[in-house]
Design brief:
With 327 residues, the protein is of the alpha/beta class. It contains 10 helices and 14 strands. Belongs to the bacterial solute-binding protein 2 family.
C-alpha cells in the first residue's frame, strides 16, 4: 500500500473531478432529427410541451410541431405530451432541471401557471401557445376567436343578402372559445345584418356526433333555416349529416372553424350548400417554435402574436390540403 499525505491526496482527487467535469460539459442530448442544418443555438435544447393528441385538432398540433423542428433543422429538441395538469407540471420541472434553452408550452389549463412561473424564474425563454397562463412569458401565440365570429358573420350575412334565419352553434364546455366566437358573430349580425333572425343550438363538445345531435334537434324545431354558424369543423361535418338525414333543402350556407382536412374536402365537394371555414390552425404551433428558437439564440421577439383567421372557401381550399396531416 502506498501512503500519501492528506494534502497531496486532496490535490489529486480535485484534479480528477475537474477533468471529469470538463468531459461532461462536452456532452449534449440530441433528439431524433434527420436534418443536417444547424442553428446558432445548436448546443441548446428546445422543449415543446403540449397536451396529448386526444382529438383531431390536438393531433394536428403534434404533427405540425414535429414538422417545424425538422424544417428549422433543430438537432436538439424534445416534444413531450401530457394527459393532465399534474403530468404537464412534472414535465416542466424535468425540462428546467435538464437546463433546456427555451420552452414552448401549450397549457393543459391555466392551473399550470405555477409551474410556468418556474420557467420564468429560471430565465428560460417561454413561448405560450393557444391558452394563456398567469406568468410573465416571453411570447404568446394564438388565433383570434372573436375574428372567427366576425369574419364568418360577414360571409354568411352577405351570402344571405342580409335576411333569413341563421342557427348559431354553442359549445359551453369549450369555455371562452365558444363565447368569443359566438359573441363576435352576434355583434356583427346586430350591427350589419339586423334583419337576420338568430336561433340557438347547443352541443356538448367539438365532435361530429355531438354536432349531428345538436343540428338534428334544431332542425326539428325550425322549419326554415337559411344558414348555420358552426364554431368547429368537426361539428360542421356532423351538422351536414343532420341536414342530409332530414332531407332539408333550405340551408344555403354553413361555416366551420379550425382547419380540419376532412372538412376541407367537404368544402371542395360542396354543391347545394356553400361550405366554408375560418382557420384556427394547429399549424400555429410552428410560429411558436420559430419564436422560441429565435429567443433561444438571443434574438428579440414580439410578445403578443395573434394570428387572424383565413376564410377558406371552394376557391382557395386547394392551398390548404395536406394529405399527411391527421387534422
Amino acid at each position: 500500500m502506498i501512503l500519501m499525505k492528506k494534502g497531496t491526496l486532496l490535490k489529486i482527487v480535485g484534479a480528477t473531478l475537474f477533468a471529469a467535469t470538463l468531459g461532461l460539459a462536452g456532452c449534449s442530448s440530441n433528439s431524433s432529427s434527420d436534418s443536417d442544418k444547424t442553428t446558432g443555438g445548436a448546443d441548446k435544447t428546445l422543449a415543446v410541451i403540449i397536451p396529448s393528441s386526444d382529438h383531431g385538432w390536438q393531433a394536428g398540433v403534434n404533427y405540425y410541431a414535429n414538422q417545424e423542428v425538422k424544417k428549422l433543422g433543430l438537432k436538439n429538441y424534445k416534444i413531450v405530451t401530457s394527459s393532465s395538469v399534474n403530468e404537464q407540471a412534472s414535465q416542466i420541472d424535468d425540462m428546467i432541471s435538464q437546463g433546456v434553452g427555451a420552452i414552448v408550452l401549450q397549457p393543459q389549463t391555466d392551473e399550470v401557471s405555477v409551474a410556468a412561473k418556474k420557467i420564468v424564474n429560471e430565465k428560460i425563454p417561454l413561448v405560450v401557445f393557444d391558452r394563456k397562463v398567469d406568468a410573465d412569458y416571453t411570447a404568446y401565440v394564438a388565433g383570434s376567436n372573436p375574428q372567427i365570429g366576425e369574419k364568418s358573420a360577414e360571409k354568411i350575412g352577405d351570402e344571405l343578402d342580409g335576411k333569413g334565419t341563421v342557427a348559431i352553434l354553442n359549445v359551453p364546455s369549450s369555455g371562452s372559445v365558444s363565447a368569443e366566437r359566438t359573441d363576435g358573430f352576434k355583434k356583427v349580425m346586430k350591427d350589419k345584418y339586423p334583419n337576420i333572425k338568430l336561433v340557438e343550438m347547443t352541443a356538448d363538445d367539438f365532435t361530429q356526433e355531438k354536432g349531428l345531435k345538436a343540428a338534428t334537434d334544431m332542425l326539428q324545431s325550425n322549419k326554415q333555416v337559411d344558414g348555420i354558424f358552426s364554431i368547429d369543423d368537426e361539428s360542421s361535418i356532423g351538422i351536414l349529416q343532420a341536414i342530409k338525414d332530414a332531407g332539408r333543402k333550405d340551408i344555403k350556407i354553413i361555416s366551420g372553424a379550425g382547419g380540419d382536412q376532412s372538412y376541407f374536402k367537404k368544402i371542395d365537394e360542396s354543391t347545394d350548400i356553400t361550405c366554408f371555414t375560418a382557420t384556427y390552425s394547429p399549424s400555429m404551433i410552428g410560429d411558436s417554435i420559430k419564436l422560441a428558437n429565435d429567443a433561444m439564440n438571443g434574438k428579440k421577439i414580439k410578445r403578443n402574436n395573434i394570428i387572424a383567421p383565413t376564410i377558406v372557401t371552394k376557391d382557395n381550399v386547394s392551398k390548404h390540403f395536406d394529405s399527411k396531416s391527421p387534422y
